[in-house]
Amino acid sequence: MSSEESTRLGGASVPETIPVPMGTRDVLPEEMAELREISGRALKVFTQAGYGEIATPALEYEETMRLAGTDFAENVYRVPDKDGQVLTLRFDSTVPIARLAATRYRAAEPPLRFCYMQHVYRAIEPKRAESRQFLQIGMELLGLPAQAGDAEAVELLVSVLRESGLTDFKIAVGDVNFFAERLATAGITGAEKERVVHEMHTRDLVGYRRELAATSVGKADLESLERLAIARGGRELLEAEGAEQLIKLDSLLAEAGVADNVIYDLGLVRPLSYYTGTVLEVFSPSSGFPLGGGGRYDNLVGRFGRELAAFGFSLNLERLHLAVLAEQEAGA
Predict the structure, then answer these.
(1) Rounded distance, CA 89 to CA 121, Å?
(2) Is 11 left (phi over 0), alpha (psi -120 to 50) or beta?
């Protein structure tokens, strides 16, 4: 190692740059101050709307996180404990909050409103813009069913984004039930359905068309499902396709004055399997990647012992920060 590549400390050769694991990074003081500013504004919006801030352990028992469903195995880091128990790092904030709501708040009258800011940890093969560790800020609304709960969450999301300093954004909204029903009507179920849905949530339209072509659906259904994958628009799209639940939601969002921030995406499928209805993702022209997402998960809390309809969303705080900076620089 040359002198340009290292320094001498106590007689030992130390590299000038010591790498951190792929998918992680250091946050320096200036950026940390900006993150604190944005998160403080967002948390203020949550608390003013009646959402109490909570935090859950970074470590959960493996058997607890398994209740999340099929997503568990591919996302989680496992940590063996000295007593033989297997612990897992929190890969998702919704699952621990579902546990908390069903146990610590078992006798509380719904709806329950929680917000949070905490890190999550994903066991991934790092690619561009993917992280093993990132900071989430978000909310969970438990005990208020669709469409009232969906509308409250979307209205709150708009307020959080605006207060964070973002002015140009769209919230893509879809319905996993509507998409699943269209697949079932075409005769696509079981393993075929899983493969098709997987291609949709990765946004691989080539793979989606390939999986559809591998099924035995007729030409008319095939063409209809191919159109559905790229069907985006406003209320007129919902009425043309007969998406009744989203039409009801759109009416509530129009009453709240936030419908202009929403675009309906009938092919939107979120990667986590516990979603049961409305789903959403947040986009901004100043970012090449989604800033966050969420949706309705009416069956998850029941796995922990209390049946509660629920809706939640989270934002990747670091991506939101970069989007706000890019927007400010573009307008400077």
Answers:
(1) 6
(2) left
**Distance between CA atoms of residues 130 and 126, nearest Å:** 5
The answer on pLDDT for 281 being more than 90 is: yes
Length of the chain: 332
In the predicted structure, residue 160 carries a pLDDT above the cut 80? yes
Establish how many alpha carbons lie within 13 A of residue 172's alpha carbon, considering only the half-sphere containing its beta carbon.
Answer: 19
Over the range 123-157, which residues count as b (16 or more CB within 10 Å of their CB) and which as e? eeeeeeeebbebbbbbbbbbbbbbbbbbbbbbbbb
Q: Tokens 């080539």 sit at which residue? A: 206
Domains of the chain in sequence order: 28-169+284-331 (3.30.930.10)
Strands (E), 156-261: 170-175, 232-233
Q: Alpha-carbon distance 142 to 115, whole Å?
A: 11
Residue with tokens 């992680």: 24
Q: Strand pairing partners for 172?
A: 263, 281
* Longest pairwise C-alpha distance within the chain: 75
Tell me what pLDDT residue 6 has: 44
Query: What's the predicted TM-score (pTM) here?
Result: 0.90
Burial class (CB in 10 A: 0-12, 13-18, 19+), 271: middle
